[in-house]
Amino acid sequence: MSCSRETVKASGCLSFAYPTTQQQLLVWRERPRCVLVLKKLGDELLVDFVRVLRFLGAEQGMRVLVEPHEYLKLVGRADLGFIDTYTPPEATRLHQYVDFVVCLGGDGTILHASSLFQRAIPPVISFSLGSLGFLTNHTLATAEDDLRGVIYGCEDLDQCALDEEMRGVHVTLRMRLECRIVRQGGGSHTGREEVYEVLNEVVVDRGANPFLTKIECWERDRLITKVQADGVMLATPTGSTAYSVAAGGSMVHPVVPAILFTPICPHSLSFRPVILPDYAELELRLPADARCPAWVCFDGKQRQELHRGDVVRVRMSTNPVPTISKTDQTADWFTSLERCFGWNDRVEQKPLT
Fold it and tell me: Which residues form a coiled coil (predicted)?
C-alpha cells in the first residue's frame, strides 16, 4: 500500500520527490489467519520451533502449516493439535491460503521458502538461527513481540487518507529472476522449457571440465559479449552480497532495480562486473564451437548440464519476495553489512595534534 502520490508538472524542468522506490508498508485488510512455519533441517531448533508454533496456534488462534516431513514428527503431540500440513499437489497453491511465512534458520531457509513459492509468495519474516544470517534481521529473543507486530501491525500509517487508524509493517520487496532453460542442443530434454525463480543468482560455469567455458551473452537481439572464464552469473540486488560479491561484484541495496552481471575468474583483465537495468532481458547461450558443455544452477540448486545450443533466458520476475523488516529496509541492510561482513571496520585515524 502506498498512501502518497506525487504530480509532476510539465514545465520542462522535472522534479521528483521520490525518484526511486519508496519505503513499502504492508497493511492487512483483515487479520491474517494462516501461517506457514519453516525451519532449517535437523532437530537442533526443535524446542524453538515448537515455541513459535504454540504462540501462533494456541495463543493467536491461527491455522499453522508445517512441511510434511516436520508434520510427521509432531502430529502425535497433544499440545500441537492445531498444526496442519499440505500434500505435493497442494504445494503449488500455497500462496492462495498462506498469509505469511515464518523462517527459523539462516539465509538458506529464506532461499528454501523462495523455492517453495515459484510464483507469488506471501510476506516472509525470518529469525536468525543460522551461521551467517545476512537476510535474517529478527532474533528469537523477541519472537513473540515481532510476530505480534506482524499480525496486528506495529507502525502507524502517517498521512494516510484511507484510514487514520490503520497500522502496518515495513517490508522489502526483494527482486527475483525468472530463468528459462531452452533445450536445443540434443539429449532427452530437447525442446523442453524449464522455469525457475531465483532470489540470489543463476550461475553458468564449466563444472569439472578442464577448459574455460565459452558463453555468448545477449540482451534481447544484441550480442553483449562472449565470456571465456570459469563461468558467469546473473544476480539480483539481494544476491549481490552472496556469491556475486565473492566474485568481485558490487554490493547493491536490495530495492535498487538492477541485474548484476558478474564474471567468474575471467581470462581477461578488462572484463569487469557491470550492473544492468531491471528491464534487461538476457540470454546465456552455449555456442556450437564451445570446447565443452557447461553447467547451470539456480540459487545453488537444480544443478544440471547444458549442451551446445542450449540457452538460459533471464529476466526480472513479476513475483518479488516481500521480507518483513526489523526496522526499515535501509537500516536493516547496513546492520547486516556491519554484523556479517564487518564492513569498513578499521582503526580510526587519530586527529592531528
Answer: none
Distance separating alpha carbons of residues 102 and 81, to the nearest angstrom: 19
- Residue 81: all three cell numbers together: 493439535
Cell of 152: 496486528
Is a pLDDT exceeding 90 seen at residue 21? no
Neighbours of 317 (CB within 10 A): 20
Question: Are both 181 and 49 inside the same structural domain?
Answer: no
Q: What is the CATH number of the domain that holds 198?
A: 2.60.200.30
Q: Catalytic pick from 48, 79, 107, 289?
A: 107
pTM above the 0.90 mark? no
Any catalytic annotation for residue 145? no
CATH number at residue 36: 3.40.50.10330
Of the candidates 224, 210, 211, which has an alpha carbon nearest to the alpha carbon of residue 284? 224
Given this model, what pLDDT does residue 23 score? 73
Residue 258: CB partners within 8 Å, gap ≥ 6?
A: 237, 252, 275, 276, 277, 278
Rank 11-20, 198-207, 321-330, 340-349 by mean pLDDT and report only the highest: 198-207
For the chain, helix (H) and strand (E) counts, in that order, are 7, 20
Range of the domain at 37: 24-174
* DSSP β-bridge partners for residue 264: 231
Domain count, the chain: 2
Identify which of 305, 330, 38, 165 has the alpha carbon closest to the alpha carbon of residue 338.
330
- pLDDT for the residue numbered 105: 92
Q: What's the DSSP call for residue 280? A: -
Sign of torsion, CA 237 241 242 248?
positive
47 and 133 part of one domain: yes
